[in-house]
Amino acid sequence: MRKKKPQTQSNGHIRIISGKFKGRKLPVKDVEGLRPTTDRVKETLFNWLMSDIRDASILDCFAGSGSLGFECLSRFAKEATFVELDKGAVNQIKANTLTLALDNAFVFHTSALEFLKNNQKGQSFDVVFLDPPFRKDLLSPCCELLEQHHWLHDDTLIYVEFEKESQPKLPDNWQLLKEKQAGQVMCMLFSRT
């Protein structure tokens, strides 16, 4: 009888779907709770954002694999800021920035809530991605901090992903532009007014 090989956790890949790094596959650490945005959802999202990424300043909170930020950089965003709590995921994002020879990617190893509490430089972003771990009630506090600490300007685009059954409190001055349901996930794009 043949012995079964022990099961090991395997790392995966994300694929960049368009731009200067089109088709590149980047390794992703196998981290509990990490769920990179699927290619299908990512294609929909970047169809929504098609004319808004070039030369934009990007904030990828809960960056995880960095998939959304890397897609923006491939599409000629001015810069991308990645915020991620998991050390293994952070190290992989940093390794992938080196692989792609990026000098406009900034990686912060901290919680999104802690990062958003401090905006000493008065920085604001053109596009913000909020895709927090599910069932942790992180989305509403992040939205509040984005507003309180002036991370957004008028017309900033904010993409949020959350589980369908939750009802996050989103700021009243965010206008819904697009929405899509993908299985149990709600995807919404807002513009700050």
UniProtKB/TrEMBL annotation:
PROSITE patterns: N6_MTASE. Keywords: Methyltransferase, rRNA processing, S-adenosyl-L-methionine, Transferase. GO terms for molecular function: 16S rRNA (guanine(966)-N(2))-methyltransferase activity; nucleic acid binding. The keyword Lipid metabolism does not apply. Its EC number is 2.1.1.171. Transmembrane segments: none annotated. It is an enzyme of class 2 (transferase). It catalyses: guanosine(966) in 16S rRNA + S-adenosyl-L-methionine = N(2)-methylguanosine(966) in 16S rRNA + S-adenosyl-L-homocysteine + H(+). It comes from the Bacteria. Coiled coil: none annotated. The keyword Cytoplasm does not apply. Belongs to the methyltransferase superfamily. RsmD family. Specifically methylates the guanine in position 966 of 16S rRNA in the assembled 30S particle. This is Ribosomal RNA small subunit methyltransferase D. It comes from Pseudoalteromonas luteoviolacea. The lineage of its organism: Bacteria, Pseudomonadati, Pseudomonadota, Gammaproteobacteria, Alteromonadales.
